[in-house]
Amino acid sequence: MAKAVKRASKSTSGSRAKAETTRSARASKKSGAPKSPKAGRSAGPPVGEVVASVVAELRKLGSQKTRNEMVSRYAIPSDHAFGVPMAKMQAIAKRLRGPDARRNHELALALWKARWYEARTVAALVDEPALVTAAQMDAWRRDFDSWAICDTVCFKLFDQTPHAVRKMGPWCRGREEFARRAGFALIACVALHNKSAPDAALLKTLPLIEEGARDERNFVKKAVSWALRSVGRRPSLKPAARDLAKRLSESADATARWVGRDALQGLK
Q1: Does the domain spanning 132-268 belong to CATH 2.30.40.10?
Q2: pLDDT at residue 38 greater than cutoff 90
Q3: In whole angstroms, what is the distance from residue 156 CA to residue 152 CA?
């Protein structure tokens, strides 16, 4: 009799435990709670394989017509380009970027090493700003060989990194054309997009802009004007930006005059 009771009790406990497990599983599914990853299952194909696949896809999407237009219409070098429209690169990046931030970052680093203009553009769109290091920013900046990749990286990635404000000053003092452009492009993008960047930090860039306004190189002077106009988009900084633009527009230096007049058009 005692043994029967014991078996019945054990059976009842087992049934209750099974029912509780079933209810818990249903509640978890209903609430959308994430499932535990299965041991040994990879987060996806190896990064190297993904990069090879992306480069092959970009190669197929490219065209000689677009490559020719890159040079003739936009002054973008085509030596390391397939000739892929921006919309198609954005679509690839959207497909690649997943919920795993570290994998996105690793994939971006690998895509950048592929050297192709389109692969590097996709890298900028896939990467995670919070995981970008100061050393990575400097390394990528040294690779800039056109205004297009410079501006895309600053506009879509670098301006949201924790190091953006600290990089503005040193980069604006660079010597190489696109390396220096990156400094002013970064000022412009931070002013426009990085809401956490204080106005005081951007106010300190005005002397850099005034100094850069005398650089007659085409891709530098245009970025200087862009930086000045963007700083002036912040209400509290608009008066100071306008004063500088007016002063530059009256300068004896022809390049500074061009920058000042161009900036004033956007600061009305």
Answers
A1: no
A2: no
A3: 6
